[in-house]
Amino acid sequence: MEFKDMDIRPELISNLAQHGIVTPSEIQARSIPAIMAGHDLLAESETGSGKTLAFAVPMIESLQHAHGMVQAIALCPTRELAKQVAGEFDKYLKHTDLRTVTVYGGVGYEPQIDAIPDSDIVIGTPGRILDLMERNALKLDGVRYLVLDEADRMLDMGFIDDIEQVIDATPEDRQTLLFSATIDYRIEVISKKYMRDPILIRAKSQEVRGHLFQGYYVVNPWQKISLLHQLLRGHKDWVALVFCRTIVATDHVAAELAKRGIDACALNGDMSQAKREQTVKEFQDHKFNILVATDVAARGLHVDGITHVFNYDLPDEAETYVHRVGRTARQGANGDAITFLSEDDYRKFDPIMDRYDDEIEKLTYHAWGRLERIPPSPPRPPRGEGRPSGGMRGAPRGGPRRGPRR
Hints:
Layout: H1 10-18, H2 26-36, E1 41-45, H3 51-62, E2 72-75, H4 79-91, E3 100-103, H5 110-115, E4 121-124, H6 126-134, E5 145-148, H7 151-156, H8 160-168, E6 175-180, H9 185-194, E7 199-203, E8 212-218, H10 224-232, E9 240-243, H11 247-259, E10 264-267, H12 273-284, E11 290-293, H13 295-298, E12 308-311, H14 318-325, E13 335-341, H15 346-356, E14 360-366, E15 370-373
Parallel strand pairs: 1-6, 1-7, 2-4, 2-5, 3-4, 5-6, 8-13, 8-14, 9-11, 9-12, 10-11, 12-13
Antiparallel strand pairs: 14-15
Helix pairs in contact: 2-3, 6-8, 14-15
């Protein structure tokens, strides 16, 4: 099936074709007819599945410009994702008189407030949308479509109260479209509370993945910066994301790498919105190749050609690890994901090892130079029995409960 086989206007079909989009992805082929038929939608879709067009096409097809009335609202977890979604809409609105506005924090209110009365579709973060509602600058009583994009991330970030206040301000007869990378009990609670007999769709990513190599080093905390420098030096063609747990750590790691001649910049929530956007744009343009970021700052960040992901600090949740390493080995290219593992991280690393089984290899450095794969550790014993020992010279005793198997 192609877009021309769907019940949408020739102008929109032509616009899609001009951008090289002729055949819908799985999520688009299954979602668009359901939305156009008036159903609520609960969709599980990975990054790269084409979900933005899945809800954009029905809106563009069915809405007409109405001054002073917001007809659709899309909630996104981060300002970066909101801008990305808005950019997709704007590409396909050329044959219509529909208008969008993107709203997020970190910038002034006035330009957003001035744009709202003439906008049909509002795309933004929950906090800023709620702020605008409280200022009586944004009214949602005319909303026909409510989109919760990457709902699981919004819940991870603690937006549930804001989301519920926004939903409560929309009409009961609206269409609710919820997209999430995973549908867990939290998503099910929202679905039962706010949706009317939603159609459930599960779709895979359309993106061609390359080979992802995953490895870890057992290191003392004070060894991390030296090891990272040794791994990065001499590789100016690498494009790397380095994940740290705290804002302070991002600044420290970026500064230490810069002292050692590595062109690195930090990205964190302490930066102004303008500075964040400038840093992301320069990274996308490859004006520097090493970005040191927190998970919150990097959410919604899409950069092509990332060759390496470094877990300088291990995340608290296995799902966050999955999101991190998914930034590389994309669009058919290969990529490496390397974790620096301290003794305090062993317990958190176990569920990650459980998830990836024997895909994560234990690594060591010989004289801080040549990369070597160490012999595999014995298979992990049943829980409650002894733990295998291992590690590199100078590292703490012990290690994750499982080594690589052959």
